[in-house]
Design goal:
By secondary structure, the protein is of the alpha/beta class. Helix content is 33%, strand content 24%.
Length: 172
C-alpha cells in the first residue's frame, strides 16, 4: 500500500481490523486514499464495526477516508460495484471461505477494479484446515475459487507462500 499509493482499497472480512490497521497506517502516511471495510459483524469476538473503527482510526487515518459497511459481502458487493465501477486499486478478500462465497467475492469485485489493480485473496493454501467451509466437491475452496477466476478471465496471478496461510494475487 505504501509503495503502490492506491486511491481506493476495499477489504472484505475485517473483524477487529488487524490487516486494515496496516493498510490504514500506509494510507495515512501516503496522505491520500480511502479504505472501505465490509464485514457481516459475526466474527469472534464480535468486533465489527465498533472495535475495528477504533483500531483503524488510531492509525491517524481520518474518518473521512474510512467507510465501514456492516453486511454480507454477497449482497453488499454488487451494490458497491455499481457505485465504484473501475475505481478500486486494491481489493483484499478474507471473508467466508466456502467455494461459493470466495468465488462470488472475487467475481463481484472485478467490476470495481481499475486496470492494473490487484485482487488479493487470503487463505488459499491447499493445506489450510477450513473445517466446515470445505466440502467433498471443494476440499480447498478458496484456492479453487482463486484458480477458477484466474483461468476463466485469463488474469495474471501469483501466490505468495507463507508458513500456513498463503496470499493469492490477481492482476486485473
Amino acid at each position: 500500500v505504501k509503495f503502490y499509493e492506491p486511491k481506493i482499497i476495499i477489504e472484505i472480512g475485517t473483524n477487529a481490523g488487524g490487516t486494515a490497521v496496516g493498510i490504514a497506517r500506509a494510507l495515512a502516511e501516503n496522505g491520500e486514499g480511502r479504505l472501505i471495510c465490509i464485514d457481516n459483524g459475526e466474527g469472534i469476538p464480535k468486533s465489527f464495526p465498533g472495535l475495528a473503527q477504533k483500531n483503524i482510526l488510531a492509525t491517524g487515518l481520518g474518518s473521512d477516508r474510512l467507510e465501514l459497511i456492516c453486511g454480507d459481502s454477497q449482497s453488499v458487493l454488487p451494490r458497491l460495484a455499481s457505485r465504484l465501477k473501475r475505481q478500486v486499486d486494491i481489493c483484499l478478500i478474507d471473508a467466508a471461505h466456502t467455494y461459493e462465497a470466495a468465488l462470488n467475492d472475487i467475481e463481484n469485485s472485478i467490476p470495481m477494479m481499475r486496470k492494473n489493480g490487484f485482487i488479493l485473496v487470503h487463505d488459499i493454501a491447499a493445506n489450510l484446515d477450513l473445517g466446515a467451509e470445505a466440502s467433498l466437491d471443494h476440499p480447498h475452496p478458496v484456492l479453487e475459487a482463486f484458480q477458477k477466476v484466474s483461468t476463466d478471465h485469463h488474469f495474471e496471478w501469483s501466490i505468495l507462500k507463507f508458513i500456513r496461510k498463503h496470499l493469492g494475487i490477481i492482476k486485473i
